[in-house]
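A favour, since you know our structure tokens better than I do. It will help me judge whether the discrete encoding reads sensibly. The space below this message is yours for that.
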Amino acid sequence: MQEQNPYTAPKANVGVPAAEFGKIRLLSARGRLGRVRYIGYSFGLPMLIGLAIGAVGVALTAAGDGMAAPLVALVGNLILVIVYALLSIQRAHDFNVTGWAAILAFIPLVNFVFWFIPGTESENRFGLRPPPNTVGAIVLACIVPLIFVIGIVAAIAIPSYQQYVERAKAEAR
């Protein structure tokens, strides 16, 4: 009878199983969505929808139908809320919490929880882990902080420049 050495490496395949990833479903309450995609999509999709709503509103106003433009704006904002809720539900699923936690996404400053809590590393009760981020998703998520910084700089610089122009005109007289 052969004796087995307890210090030898195992002969079975005990390595990490093949990486399986779930599908990205943007307009669904099922599945999971990672942090980077959540940040990018929660700003990118509303911008696209907002531009479409604005274009339709401008076209209706130019056509002389003043009553339809507010209705389009109302329906468009409802669509924005639904899209943001679906993205937040998927993000909550990523860190293994029920979709009802997406209500927190509508509370100012509390919604940043969805930005910073890491997702579950492996499969959880809501499905397979999300696929790795693409370059487009990473670039879109990196643009978001730039938008905030540009907005703050513009809010400070534009009034200062207007005051400068007024003083320059006053001195020229």
User: Anything to note?
Assistant: DSSP finds four helices and no strands in the chain. The mean pLDDT is 85. Helices lie at 35-62, 68-94, 113-116, 135-172. The radius of gyration is 25 Å.
